[in-house]
């Protein structure tokens, strides 16, 4: 590592299932990265201090005094120290105001708060807020009004207004798919006979969800089985069909909630494969003006470290070529 | 058993998880009944002949030559002999025309076909069709037009027109609840801390589903967790809340499909506790003209045995007092 690329920050994304660590240099450039399957539910012996030491101890000893910042479930009640949620509408300043530190052998590790949307049916995020503020750095034109989609086990749809997280919803699409695949009658044929990827079956599921209109997929989930019984779907294709039904229901629901308003600029953030699947699905629903942003998480950690004066703000090094429209 | 009550029929409801046998006398009166957890997925050694012998062999030996009739999954591909589905619109004559027999040590056991609704998204029933025709015997005024609800693992909503099953849908509400309770993050608090029955939490879930309007519960399932995190629901109550969300989504979906038409007379058939729960739920959706019918399954087996001339038709002995409005 050359002298010119002096490390400036240790940044952690410490979630439920994984722990990712980044050594960031000037402008948020990634100098080194490593990860372990040590999310807070899987941290060996639940010993966060030791996991931290094992993952980033070398960096801390090599560059003493580096500031350290973490986002994600590590700040939850089940994490290292509970950091109270910031409330919607939440700005990056609100997040920074809520920082709390834990003591480590190498100095403080600052933990970011999550965000609470205290609607009648409340919603919470921990980690996604950092990706959202990263996205707003990468694409400042989104600050006024945008809808950011973070697909996953629990998909989050985050509305941004005037630079703040104004509202968000959670769709348990990934978890629903997993429990139905692994534990319901719908997953049994593929469990027994194996999986055969099929974009066509995925699109048939999407269409069935879209055509359900206000009824939703409640009465159509079982078609994953009845199409098989009537030999119009194979066991191998059935999981892609089910995935289409469930992602389709998520999109149908969100688009129904927007119906009377114009759809704000839509941005996908997250795992590239999953984002591509959602982009395909959105297209099937007639929504084609969708961009995908990469590196939003790291960018967000750097931006928030700057806002907290843990590091000196400089123009972000993540070029706009990371943004695909 | 007195001479006057001579047995006339051995009637079986042989489903996926259980096997119920009835010894029926004149008019369909139940002279004796017994059941085993020997549904076709749990029949010891998969030996249907031996299970039949063990359950009803005594009756067969005591009254040789009794006709025997079965409905349910025993007629499926995984059952004793596959009986092809009757097609919608399906009358009781269509069912009888499709009877197939298996040979037993005591003579033929006739197996009823299920029904296939060959819509673009097909649907199938095996066993429920018999309950439906039983219900039409118990309440003949339903024959012209009615919607019969059979709640359960897979709830069936069966439309009847002019004495025939014209259409039906499946809602996997019971199975969805079970997999989410046992395998998802939503069930974990109750799994760890125990269940506390709460009609109030059930109604809150119903209301959340009803108020979701065209959006459906996709973005509201997670409230089972977020209400807990914000201490507005207890772990013990959370499963009744989830049950309300899921049953509510089923009702919301069905009522959305009826919106432009008047709701036909609505009848609940099945397990008394579950029917009561659906009655409560329907009331929460403003649907109060709902009746519950008991003994529809046995009545249906008797009626179809008469239609098949396996027994001599006489007025059904199940009094109309079995019908609660």
From TrEMBL, chains A, B:
Gene3D superfamilies: 2-keto-3-deoxy-galactonokinase, C-terminal domain, 2-keto-3-deoxy-galactonokinase, substrate binding domain
GO biological process terms on file: D-galactonate catabolic process
Molecular functions per Gene Ontology: 2-dehydro-3-deoxygalactonokinase activity
InterPro entries named among the record's database cross-references: ATPase_NBD, DGOK, DGOK_C, DGOK_N
Pfam families per record: DGOK
Keyword Transferase tagged: yes
Enzyme Commission number, as recorded: 2.7.1.58
Broadest EC class assigned to this enzyme: transferase
Keywords: Kinase, Transferase
Highest rank taxon of the organism: Bacteria
Name this polypeptide is given: 2-dehydro-3-deoxygalactonokinase
Lineage, broadest ranks: Bacteria, Pseudomonadati, Pseudomonadota, Gammaproteobacteria, Pseudomonadales
